[in-house]
Each structure stands twice: as C-alpha cells, then as structure tokens.
Amino acid sequence: MTSFEFLGQMASSESVETNNDDLISNMPAIVTDRILKHLPLAIAAKMSILSTTWRRTWLSCHYLAFDGAFWNGFCKLDKSVDWQKGSGIISNVLCHHNGRIQSILLELRPDNADLLVDKNASLSQWLSLLSRICPRKIVLINWAGKWSHLVIMPSYIFHCTELMKLKLQCFVLNAPPFDFKGFPRLKRLELLFMKFNNGIDMIWSFIAKCPCLVFLRLENCLGMDILDIDAPSLEKLIIRGTFDSLRLKKIPRLIDVSLCSTKSEMSDTETTVATINSLASSYELQCLTIEGGINKPLSVAFNHLVKLCLSDLSITDADVFCFTLGMLQSCPFIKDLEISIISADDAVEHKYEYYINDYKLGRLHKVKITGITGSNAELKLIEYVLATSVVLEKLFFKCEKLDVFSELKVLRQLIRLPRASTKAQFVCLGE
C-alpha cells in the first residue's frame, strides 16, 4: 500500500469526524515519516511550515541525508562548495533534533586539504550529538582525493552502540577505547579507503566485537596486509585491495564471497590461490566472485556453488584463459554464470584449446558475458560454455567498443557455434 492509498483510507475512516478537520496536520506518524524519508532534505525542512504538527515531525525526523543533493545547494559562483554554510546547517539541524534518528547519511564536502581541521572539529561535534541519540544506521563519506586528505574518525563513533549498519569511507580509524565492548547489534559493516593506524590487531579486534555481523565489506584500506576475520554470523564477505594473508576463523554461515587482490606480484598470486583453496575446502559457498583472474590453474571443487562471477578478465592471456576454464570445471552445479572481459590493445593472441571429455555443466541456465571484442580467446570461451551447458536457456552478451558492422560480425560468429542445449538463445544487451 502506498502512502497516498493509506492517506485515502484515513480520510474516509471514522477518525475524521467532520469535513473541516485539518487532514494535513492529522496525518498518522507512519505516513509523515514515510513522506519525509523520500524527500530531499531541503524540501523536507520546508514541510515544517505547513503546521505545528509538521514542524514537530520535522524536528524528530527519523531519516536524515546530507548527501550530494544537499551540498549542491551551497555551490558558489565558481562551482565550489561552501563548507562553512553547509556544515553550519548540519550542526543546526542536529542540535535542534529532538527525536531518535534511525538512519543518517553524512557526506563531508568538498575535498580540500585546508578544511581538514574544520572537518575534524565538525565531525567530532556531530558524532557527539549522534552518540546520545543512538541511530541504527550511519553512513559517513569523506570526499578525499588523496590519502593525506583523510579525516580522523572521532572516538564518539564507538559510543553509538545501537548501530545495525555502519559505512565509513576515507577516514583514519584509530583503535577503540579500552572500555569499548563492541557493537552487539551491528549486522552490516563497510569500510572503504580507510587507514587503520593500529594495523592488524585493530581490524581483528574491531570485527571480533561485532558478534551479529552478517555482511562485511573491506575495500582498498591501508593496514590490512594480514587479515584475520572471526565473525561467527557472517554470511557475505567482500574484500578488495592489497593483502598478504587472509585467514577466516569460525565462519560456518559464510555463503557469499567476493575477492579481488590489486597486487600483481607472484607472492600475491600464491596468497589468492591459497585463499580460494581454503574457501573450497572449508565452506559451502553458494556465490563466489573473483575479480581480475589468476595466472595459475586451480585444482579445487565448489560443489555447493550456485552462482559464479568472474570479472575484469584479461582473457587473451593464456594463463587467465586456463584459469577461467579451470574455475568452470571446479563449479559443476552452478546455475548462473557472469563473466566480464577487459581488452588490452597490446594483447597477443595465442592458440586456445580445451578438452571436454564427459564434463558437463548440467544445471547452468543463465550466462552473461560482457566486454566482447571478437577475439579468438573470447569466442573459444563462449564455444566451451555452449558445448558443456546442456540445459542452458539464455546467454546474454554485450560487445565493447565495436561499431555496428563489427558487432554484426561477432553475432554471426556466435550464432554459428554449436550448442549442447536446444533451448539456448542469444540475447544482446543494450547500453
């Protein structure tokens, strides 16, 4: 039921005694909350002039979003953002707020090294106020183009013990206070482009004190070379960045993993291989995403995997091609396959061969392959998928950087490929 349908029922109910009742002021709290939640902050604030009731509703709004749309209202003539005016409004709103905030999004704009001191002071004040309100969801994003522009996260963040969702981006995170007992209700944690001052021990202890954590995302953080993750309730894990070791402890519910190492040294390849082997032998994963590929074949089996995603593959590299085929053979029961290909202008074509024997992907129904340029390696990979997928229904594909005639040429080549499934159809994805 939409807000307006609910409002219509309320208008015709017995609660409205006469036609002269102020319907706008007498809206149920559930309706006004829903309306304010979906309005930009500036418009939501203006709703307070409708009546005294709406003013009280605005001052106790459960959802606040100081996002890009908010900061766009403080652009100067030179298109730069006026930090002083914007931060002043945020302080004013939080100081006069007299209700519980369920969710708050705070973006710190603009990216300016001269504002680091002001950003630190303002953020400390805001989190001090929020720690008394105990919000359920906090998203803090600091717009920083350099590591030197990161803002230090005030310790008040550790006082928001009722948090269920927390996302931090571009901050320096120090160790929690000694009396910090954790986030007992936190279910979702995202840390992006963060710097951990106390390194390994800090990350381990931080995650270990979130016993209800279900979703964990760590991307491009400094100080996470060695990762020890102990989260008994964790179901989904996303890790992207540079790390030398990843050890997962006591995570029996883990079913969805996304892994990307941005390092290219051989030592890192060995680390990634060891991690994948550990995932295959110790967990019953249902979804697995590997970004970038590995220049080394694997000998593992994911017998419970339902969905496999291989992204940013340089498929013309013979080793990556072999890795891709090896991963397909390691996941015999997948139903959904996604592959994204990146092309290199200086790529050298090789002779790509494969052997099917009796191997079949007996449950694969849907395939999506993007970034196709028509190279021999791409066509050989698609040929392999079609030859082994006996129940395939649709293969979605999208070409990359090709003109109309080149796309038609690729399509003709695809149509000519033999198919093990009589139901298999090609579907071209649009822009």
Can you walk me through this structure?
This protein has 431 residues and is α/β, with parallel strands linked by helices. 31% of the residues lie in helices and 22% in strands. It contains twelve helices and 19 strands. The protein has helices at residues 3-12, 29-37, 41-46, 52-59, 68-72, 83-96, 116-133, 199-208, 266-282, 318-329, 376-388, 404-415, and strands at residues 63-66, 103-108, 137-142, 151-152, 165-169, 171-173, 188-192, 195-196, 215-219, 226-230, 236-241, 245-249, 256-261, 287-291, 307-313, 336-341, 366-372, 394-399, 425-428. Helix 11 (376-388) links the parallel strand 17 and strand 18 (394-399). Helix 6 (83-96) packs parallel to helix 7. The chain is globular.
Name a few traits of the molecule.
19 strands; globular; alpha/beta; 14-stranded parallel sheet; 431 residues; three-stranded parallel sheet
